Amino acid sequence: MAKEPLKKDERQKLLDSRLKSLGVLDRIVEGDKFDNRQKDYISTGIAEIDAELGSLPGFATGNLIELIGESGPGKTYVALKAATEAQRKGMKVAFYNIENSFYEPRAIEIGVITRDKDLFQLIPNLGSGEKMCDAIMAMVESGLYGLIIVDSITAIIPEEMLEKDFDKPRKIGAHATLVGALAQKLTYACGETNTTVILINQFRIGAGVVPNTFVKKATGGEGLLFYDHYRFSFRKIGVAIVTG
Question: 10-residue block means of pLDDT along the chain (244 residues)?
Fold first, then answer.
């Protein structure tokens, strides 16, 4: 004789018991219990960009953001404007100066508070990309920072490539693999600690689908697109800066 199907409340108890054993039951948010984290945001400090972001006039906190484009169209400027807005909310900002291009007078002119240890930290190029990624993850997982800016992931160099002589062959895809792994981990860690991370990226020229053709590609591999919560592409039009 076939067993009678379990009632809804009995199935719910079984599910709850299984989820509890996995340690995730208390992490589920019911539809009537959303907290204010769903409404927190960091303004970009640029009204035109904020207006395009929908109901939240800025980046939702705890998200991974990629600013990508050629050199000079304003990626770092937008990141520093966001840093200014984050500091206005009392958030601590960390800036990874991987390209060694941070210029304090410019940051101050934009509005960043650089001389307050509770609001700002500048991290130099630490050498290998693996060490850099580990440091970024440690800061995100600490939950002590509201915003972390990485300028740029293009300049992150895997240890294998950093230590090899120029006449030795390079492992294909080493940089993309490292950056992709960082983005994967950040997607989870940012949400856990409500830390916002801005990855500044650049285009490179790569081979197209058709032989002997070339196209612009993002460094770090195309997989990075799947982990971003926001991706802004910057380009120059005359002297104007356009983001889309």
Answer: 80 93 88 72 93 89 93 91 97 97 96 98 95 97 98 91 72 85 94 95 67 64 80 73 54
CB-based contacts of 6, cutoff 8 Å, min separation 6:
14
Alpha-carbon distance of 184 to 153, in angstroms, equals 14
C-alpha to C-alpha distance for 118 and 181, rounded to whole angstroms? 30
Residues 169, 219 contacting (CB under 8 angstroms):
no
Task: Report CA 43 to chain centroid distance, whole Å.
Answer: 15
Q: Helix 129-142 vs helix 174-193: angle between axes, to the nearest 10 degrees?
A: 10
Phi-psi domain of 47 (left: phi exceeds 0; alpha: psi -120 through 50; beta: other): alpha
Residue pair 59/195 in contact by the 8 Å Cβ criterion: no
Map tokens 């801005």 to a residue: 198
Parallel/antiparallel/unpaired status of strands 59-60 and 41-42: antiparallel
| Collapsed DSSP state (helix, strand, coil) of residue 116 | coil
For residue 4, what are its two tokens? 């009678």
d(CA 78, CA 145): 18
* pTM of the predicted structure, to 2 decimals: 0.86
Helix (H/G/I), strand (E/B), else coil: 7: coil
